[in-house]
Amino acid sequence: MNIGLIFSQMRERYTASLWPVVLETARNEGVGVVLFPETQNRVCQGYAKTLDALLILTGDISLYHPGPALEKFLFRFSALPKVHLSMEIPPDPCYGIDNSHAVRDSVRHLVLDHGVRDIAYIRGPQEHQEAQIRFSAYRAALEELGIAYREDWVYQGNFFKESGPAALKAFLDERHLPLKAVLSANDAMALAFIEAAFERGLSVPEDLMVIGFDDTEGAQAGRVSLTTVRQPYRQLAEAATLAVIDLARGKAPGQARSFLPSLIIRNSCGCYSESVRAIVTEALAEPSSSDGLEARAAWRSKLSSALLGSLARSRLPVETREFLAAGLVEAFEGIEDSDKGFLELLADALYREIGAQGRPSLWHGALSVLNAHPGPFLGQAWFSRAAALQKAR
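RE: above sequence
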């Protein structure tokens, strides 16, 4: 039994996060996969009789075949059972993500956690289904927060990296906006925007806060790590692959699903800016000896102070913050044996913050402090702590 997979390019960051999972999932089911990059769709037509079903990264393909061209493209494969990824094409089943929820979270993070109300947006192609959903969510989030939508704060991009520098030029040179924060409909445009900003002598996040979407492979490889929305690539690809295998076997596929992405806080939004880094670095100057009890106690005290600095906007009483910060440092140091205590204490802090009508996402800043300064006492066990921090995120 063989299924086909149609996508744009194997090395494109978005598709490269999906097709290996499709191959792995199909192999585990004893099913073969024939890969067809978009440029070989006519070859796929020739192979159609040898395929039992087809999985199409339709959201990806629609970038190269927008509007009516997509209908024409898909018509070539009308005889095959199909499952779509990231774009609904009734009556075929589709597996995707809740784009709206993710964008709203990004807007709320900038407004409620950073106090920024002037937020520009780099949108994707107008005829692209997911791009339109993300743009509509941006407008809806502004309205929910009592912020007026302004058309000149939106740049019409195309999901490709050239839109990043073009958006920066439009916002600053043509529209002369007092730019402080930018949301991008995908990572490619966001990363290129950041590079263009640095080339102009601007700093991210000190001068410009930036949030992307997708959490592709390059999100942590630039000059500043990108705060972005992480798509659950493995869950998405596994579910879609199993659904198309069911079709190939003549079974009804499981109910189509929309997976929930998550906002991944890194440096580019300002949660851990260079100014905060400088303060924390000074506060955490490592002691000359990592063996003495006094040095260890001094390091704990300094890290607790740095954590408190990252929680300045918390609504918890100061004495509660001090207690939690000291407890987190102690629990973090003991993760080598188990991360249970650390995660339970963090959960307690989040519940307390919610009970005080505060924003639990403020605690991302505390996690960033721990992540950047593991301390001189943790040695090779840092990998355990890194894993615990990812759970905590």
